[in-house]
Amino acid sequence: MASGKVIHIIGVVLITQARRRKMASGKVIHNCAAGLRTRRERTRAPCGFGLCSAGLYAPRGRARGINPRATIGKSGRHNRNYAHYGRGEFIVGGARRRRYLLAGNTAGRRPGGATVLPQAGAAGRRVPAALAGKEQAKMATQRRCQALAAVAAAAAAGLLVVSAFLLCRAGAAAAAGARAGPAAATAPRMDETLAKDCPPVGGDWLARWDKHITSSARTRYCDREMGEELGWLVSPFLNGFYYGYKATRDPKWCDLLVDWADALIRRAVKEPDGFIGWPKQGATSTDSFGRDLYTDSQLGEAMALRPIVLMADEILRTPSLKAKYGAKAQEYIQLAERIFQKWDAWGAWREVKDGGLWVVPPVGIDKAAGKWAEGYEKRRTDGFSLPANKQNLVACWLMAMHDVTQKPIYKDRAEKWFRQMKSRMKRRNGGTYDVWNYWDPAGPWDYKPDGSTRHWVGVHPNGGYYGIDVEGIATAYEHGLVFTKEDIDRLVATNRDFMWNKQVAGASFQRIDGGTPDSRWARSPGVLWTALTPYDETLRKVFEANHDPAGWGGLSATPWYLARFAPAEPRPR
Q1: How many Å is the maximal CA-CA distance in the chain?
Q2: Of 157, 180, 203, which closes a domain?
Q3: Residue 290 binned pLDDT confidence (cut-offs 50, 70, 90)
Q4: What is the pLDDT of residues 102-128, one digit of tens each?
């Protein structure tokens, strides 16, 4: 049942009960909420919390919500600094100087269907002059008694209305959870005060980032990169353009994303089965399997397509952008769906014990013959499981696909991976912290003929890979999938209490397992898990004290952070 209907029903019940006790509840309670003015006064007053929305003054009209923070300024007009939806009106005037109390009128006029309560005195019965003093005293006494009764009635009504309000809010949250998952509706954002004080809001971060990404975009990686480099070199710019639009609502970022996306798509290669891709020699990017294959990279395509699909959704929901790029946005989404179908047709998805995951299939192209290379016939049984960080990046693309298309297959595949991911995470130090391997074998395809694994098993010395994993986990949590608030809290504890050196300025992080740093990644054995900044104030402070908006990582992280914590105005129409 809609919250408005529930609260309206409660209001009607309360009025019915009040009338049985011969109390003019609507009049008296409203007098308490709005406050009686002089007979010549004409002004607006906010209702008490929850009263107007309960329909106490307009049982025949439609219940309206109110803003309990609304205030009256010195001029007597409603303070427009607060959004408001409906409020009580106290209007004095008319030919007979009659006082009215109007419910739910936002224009200062007598509304259709509103309850009008004429007050006694000047607008009521006439009183002889000789008895005027006594009559006025009697009426004043009656008003005081009624006001006292109203206080009790209002208190009881307020409790019931507040209870109903909370129940309706709970129902609304449940409905939102059914659409986007419970965490998506309740994921915390930065404290408003902290957001106002943080450096990005002052404009410095935005200006430095704008200059940096605009200058760096001259590299035009979109014109030449193929394979996995679509992810590592092209997607940071595509993400930067997408989140730049989200943070500023400046259409120039949409223009840049479309320019890069079109340049990328123009270079796609049609392959023997009719699908398109961006093949490259050694695109599997691992010595463990298929190093010599001339093939596509699922990771590179997923990383590049995610911001393209998300921007397509923004285009289709923004009339000014849709008029310019609407057809192109539809093409982007269709392309992304075809790429998903390609990897599905290649047998890259495998169901396993605890869920599911993606593998690099033995699908290569013989460039000279223009047909599949040897091994194609084993594509559904052979292969190599992607490591966790790549699985999580693919899953983030799938969640974006589900958000935009609402097709369940994308969410189902991502959810199965997240289940697999969670099954691999181990608790330590009494369950306080988490640790997991970079790669684990998932099926017979991950073993050599001698029984050994195709890849080493353990914690990777590059801490950046774990930051990617946590991004996938946070995405799952915010969509209400697999991971819970307890999981997020434990990850926060791992990054903040175990890995961090406890210095806000000049912060550094050790390995997730506390191991000795590898010389190849001596500066990043561990990193700040940026995806957790919405859930911990300390990690936010560390991010703000150390982030470089003009660095490579700042290309996408800067506008993402600004869009999350200091967003621009709502989407233009």
Answers
A1: 116
A2: 180
A3: confident
A4: 333 333 333 333 333 344 333 444 444
> Is 227 a residue whose pLDDT tops 70?
yes
Per-residue pLDDT band at 137 (split at 50, 70, 90): low
Rounded to an integer, what distance in angstroms lies between the CA atom of residue 7 and that of residue 51?
10
How far apart are alpha carbons 125 and 323 in whole angstroms? Answer: 64
pTM, two decimal places? 0.69
404 lies in some domain: yes
Domain end position, chosen among 180, 209, 226 = 180
Taking the C-alpha atoms of residue 475 and residue 469, their distance in angstroms, rounded to an integer, is 10
Domain that holds residue 72: 3-180
pLDDT computed for residue 322 by the predictor = 98
Between CA 424 and CA 442 the distance in angstroms is: 11
1-6 CB contacts, 8 Å cutoff, 24+ apart: 1/171, 3/165, 3/168, 3/169, 3/171, 3/172, 4/53, 4/62, 4/63, 4/64, 4/65, 5/63, 6/164, 6/167, 6/168
Inside any domain, residue 570: no
Give the burial class of 395: count Cβ atoms within 10 A of its Cβ; 0-12 exposed, 13-18 middle, 19 or more buried: buried
Residue 540, domain CATH = 1.50.10
Q: Are residue 525 and residue 506 in the same domain, yes or no?
A: yes
176 plus 209 within the same structural domain: no
Tokens 């285009």, located at residue: 315
d(CA 271, CA 255): 29
Q: Do 176 and 195 sit in the same domain of this protein?
A: no
Number of folded domains that form the chain: 2
Tokens representing residue 564 in the block: 């999350």
Where do the H-state alpha helices sit in 21-131?
A: 25-34
Check whether residue 104 and residue 201 sit in a common domain: no
196 with 62, same domain: the answer is no
Q: Is 369 exposed, middle or buried (0-12, 13-18, 19+ CB in 10 A)?
A: exposed
Tell me which residue has tokens 């790669």: 439
Q: Is residue 573 part of a domain?
A: no
- On whether residue 186 sits in a domain, the answer given is no
Q: Which two tokens stand for residue 190?
A: 């930065």
Contact 214, 253 (CB under 8 A): no
Q: pLDDT band at 9, cuts 50/70/90?
A: low
Q: Are residues 135 and 216 in the same domain?
A: no
- Higher-confidence position of 301 and 76: 301
